[in-house]
Design the sequence.
């Protein structure tokens, strides 16, 4: 039995809208961001909202999967609206890199047995994580 859930057409459209044409999985030359930063303590190229542990892809997830407006995200996470918009723009510009890292994370979790059928205690976490990782 597969734990891969069906991805709705709404999610597929959101993914298509944020998947830039012509990117090949590399970060482009450094851009100056006001609200985003690299976290050297994390093994990822993805940027985080400055001063928080919030990944830019988390903001994207809130927007397109949880269907929150940018205003709702800013309010719920107590972040400036400009930080939300900058994170969404970053995700759009670096989607292939983010997806490649999510694919690697999914492979590692799979190798650790995270998605195994017998781990019923984590099944809810695995299903929601697979929904998120399947977007890439």
Sequence:
């Amino acid at each position: 039995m597969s734990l891969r859930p069906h991805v709705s057409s709404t999610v597929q459209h959101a993914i298509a809208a944020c998947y830039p044409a012509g990117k090949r999985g590399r970060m482009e030359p450094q851009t100056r961001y006001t609200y985003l930063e690299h976290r050297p303590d994390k093994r990822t190229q993805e940027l985080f909202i400055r001063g928080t542990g919030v990944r830019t892809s988390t903001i994207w997830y809130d927007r397109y999967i949880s269907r929150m407006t940018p205003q709702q995200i800013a309010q719920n996470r107590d972040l400036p609206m400009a930080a939300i918009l900058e994170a969404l723009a970053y995700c759009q510009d670096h989607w292939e890199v983010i997806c490649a890292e999510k694919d690697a994370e999914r492979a590692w979790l799979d190798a650790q047995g995270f998605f195994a059928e017998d781990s019923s205690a984590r099944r809810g976490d695995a299903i929601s994580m697979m929904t998120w990782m399947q977007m890439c």
Notes: The mean pLDDT is 77. The two ends are 21 Å apart (CA to CA).
